Amino acid sequence: MTIDLEEILNPLFSDGNIAKKVKARYQKNSILSLKAPDIKIIEKPFRTMQIFNVFKNEDFLTKFITEINCIKLHEKSNDLYSISQSDDLNILPLDRCGKIFKKLINKKLWEYCSLLVGEKLKSIASMTISKYQKGDYLLCHDDKCEDRCIAFVIYLSNVEWEERDGGLLSLFNHDKNSKQPTTEEIKLLPIFNSMVLFKVSTTSYHQVTEVVGDKTRLSINGWFHSCKAIKMPKPNYLYLSGAILSAQLEDTPYINVVCKQYLLQSVVDSISKDFLQNRAIYLPSFLKADFYDGCLNELNNQLKWKLTGPPNHRNCYLPTNFDFQNASPSVFPNLCKLLSILCSPDFAEYLSHITKHRLIEDASRTETLVNIEIQRWSQKCYTLLADNDVLQSLNFIDVVLFFGVDEVSDDEGDCGGLTYVPSAKKQKNH
Asked: PANTHER family in the record, alphabetically (predicted)?
């Protein structure tokens, strides 16, 4: 039986006059307001279109949702997202409504999006079912990958969604110089039977906020791809905001603040053996109790904090009243001493003994370079995997000192832990 696709979709997808007006408005060739009740064009932070009542045939929509709820989804979790997704719908053996939906996307929506952007797009869109449940999220990213041109998402959760439920699509402003995302400009509810689409660019930063309620956020999301070759932009390098510091050996004897057990040669040899086997090691009670307490007191009571990004790399608190280069020992005696120790050549030599990595190639050097940052972590803080986040050095050791944490648990339900991922196992972000 032949299916009339126009009987399923909102008439605006077939009305040539509306389509031309939408194109003119979307491409900013018209300053006239768009009088189409089911279309909303959002100008900032980047041009985005919302289409409501996408499917006018309610019977089809109900049956389609029933069908996709039977499709197997895969739980996916990495540094960027926690989500359940299907395989690409183009390769799945879909039922009747699913096959019709695929035609709607690859024919009617393809024609519509090609008109919007003024270029011919590949006629097969990549698309998957995405299900977000309590605790699921998708952190800030730009969707820029290979030949993606138009991103779209169709919301299929037939429930009344509120902002307090989470699962909102957030669109980010960006810094004009660095092109990095800054603040959230707008949050869009996943309204049932609506669609959001936008052109993918190096600044089309967006995220799906964590679902915090018991409702399920169901959607079809995907991309139309350009027929043109797209040159991928060079990555924006992000380095830790803390300054590159140096200190003299005689000013900072680390042996005065490190617990004596970690100075014993037999213990150092044992630590080194474990490190070489596991490539990482946790040393509890590393600092002497009185010095640790002094540092913790200054961190808790004397520093002021600000939530800092950019959100496509991280979201954590950094101090606003602590200048790494000019911090006063009279105000921050313990923290200044700690920084001096971490920057000292003898501490670098101590780390070299543990890790068997030479951090100072020239034994005659009297100083070493260290990149330091003080961070505070709490709920909703995160950092994303990125090869450009660290100093570009072959002899680089990551040292993290934890304060205010009673113990470290291996329970995956605990937050704030560190995860090191070998490059061969690193998942793609898109």
From this structure: HISTONE ACETYLTRANSFERASE COMPLEX, PROLYL 3-HYDROXYLASE OGFOD1
